[in-house]
Amino acid sequence: MDLFNTDPESNILPFDGEVNYYGPVITIDKAQYYFDQLLQNIQWENDKAIIFGKLIITKRKVAWYGNQPFNYTYSKTTKSALPWTKELLELKDVIEKKTGETFNSCLLNLYHSGNEGMAWHSDSEKDLKTNGAIGSLSFGAERKFSFKHKATKQTVSVLLEKGSLLVMKGTTQTHWLHRLPPTKKVNRPRINLTFRTIEP
Ligand SMILES: O=C(O)CCC(=O)C(=O)O
Ligand SMILES: [Fe+2]
């Protein structure tokens, strides 16, 4: 397990997809500034999901922003995108320049501590651009992020540092699941932004 591979040219997946870890792309001071701004200015809401027919309200908070009031449906619940904030537009610009990709929406997650995580899933909702890049920016507590191949069950993990950028693209979502495992080692909050392309 290579937790510190920060060569954006190198693919951390062995096959069937492409994931590039850029390491920190925002300075420590700016990362702290954005963490504070996002914590205050984002319209955070508890996530609702219908799992095995039961409505679950997660401890993790989420928000959904975009170029237009796109509807985004996941786990059978729908949210309408809010207009970009100043900070989100600045961050979108940073990662568009770094990656050469464009994004029109962003799903944000607030994990209050290591007790909160996200279960194995792939981001393949029907309105997401097929094989479109997803740019993931992390602030606050550092957390491990893992991939698992759907057929071979092989896993790959990476440590998401504060201010870091991870990009998933190509056939990654078709062949790999990913998750943010809960951990007892972290008791501070983390904010994650995943910039995406919606094709309504
Ligand atoms: O928190 C993370 O790093 C990942 C979040 C994620 O996978 C998602 O929002 O789809
Ligand atoms: Fe995801």
Automatic annotation (TrEMBL):
The keyword Electron transport does not apply. It holds the Pfam family 2OG-FeII_Oxy_2. InterPro entries: AlkB-like, AlkB-like_sf, ALKBH3, Oxoglu/Fe-dep_dioxygenase_dom. The keyword Iron applies. Its cofactor is Fe(2+). GO terms for biological process: DNA alkylation repair. One of its GO terms (molecular function) is demethylase activity. Residues 102-199 form the Fe2OG dioxygenase domain. Keywords: Dioxygenase, DNA damage, DNA repair, Iron, Magnesium, Metal-binding, Oxidoreductase. It comes from the Bacteria. Signal peptide: none annotated. This is 2OG-Fe(II) oxygenase.
